[in-house]
Amino acid sequence: MDESKKVRQIWTELGLPGIVDVHTHFMPKNVMDKVWQYFDSQGPLIGREWPITYRADEAQRVATLREFGIRRFTSLIYAHKPDMAAWLNQWARGFAQDTPDCLATATFFPEPEATGYVRDAIAAGTQVFKSHIQVGNYEPNDPLLDEVWGQIEDAGIPVVIHCGSGPAPGDFTGPDPIARLLTRYPRLALIIAHMGMPEYSAFLDLAERYDNVRLDTTMAFTPFVEEMMPFPAAEQGRLKDLGEHILFGSDFPNIPYGYAEAVHHLIDLPGVDDAWRRNVLHDNAAKLFGLS
């Protein structure tokens, strides 16, 4: 059975209309090429190779997600320096207009212009923001972001935020900066990328404490990650209890294994039932993003 049939069989048997993947990457070609070069060079950093399974042109990658039956996906972009986020947002806006099954995505960076271009992005219909604390190497509580967080909180727009210390720590990664951020902006709709690995427990704590904090499953529970940063067995019960706070994410196309493998390891978790699987693969995100 080819991979698309394997993925479709999973969601069909659960009675779903497809999957919502909140963590996929589409970027300008020159930026995506640099991201792939980064992963190609990461072997020494993480102690193992990181091959890109879906290294293909943009049209083929979109077609692949559609073949899998992915109802909605994202174009998670992120800036690693000033004067980059605004033009990335412009590109992502055009991509979403041309790709109606992509949630309109935007990003930001701590810089004086951020308040203005985030305001513009919200007005233009942005549905999800991306923040990458590790790559951007910024403190999420930087004063330059105060009005940015305030605008996003007031608009109720989710932010997929890579803030855990995996696969490699950054100067500002970990749960403590996010806990401080949520103390200041308790209504923020944060989606903690990668289940917050490896600080899984601390980020689950935040999801218990704040109604609008969610976690995405990106790369978690797969053998690739379990060998390096295993999800604690002691937290399996809490994983099930927090099922309405968990959303499926894949990291497509930048994953070192097949998409079907990621979905299978998620639905095969011990102690979860079909209601949990339906919520995580589709229903939670459909509710969050107002999908019919």
UniProtKB/TrEMBL annotation:
One Pfam family linked to the record: Amidohydro_2
Any one Gene Ontology BP term: secondary metabolic process
Residues in Amidohydrolase-related domain copies: 20-291
Entries under InterPro entries matching the protein: ACMSD (IPR032465), Amidohydro-rel (IPR006680), Metal_Hydrolase (IPR032466)
GO cellular component, one term: cytoplasm
Presence of the UniProt keyword Methyltransferase in the record: no
Gene3D superfamilies xrefs: Metal-dependent hydrolases
The entry's keywords: Hydrolase, Lyase
UniProt keyword annotation of Lyase present: yes
GO MF annotations in UniProt: carboxy-lyase activity; hydrolase activity
PANTHER family, per database record: 2-AMINO-3-CARBOXYLMUCONATE-6-SEMIALDEHYDE DECARBOXYLASE, ISO-OROTATE DECARBOXYLASE (EUROFUNG)
This protein's name: Amidohydrolase
Organism for this UniProt entry: Mycolicibacterium neworleansense
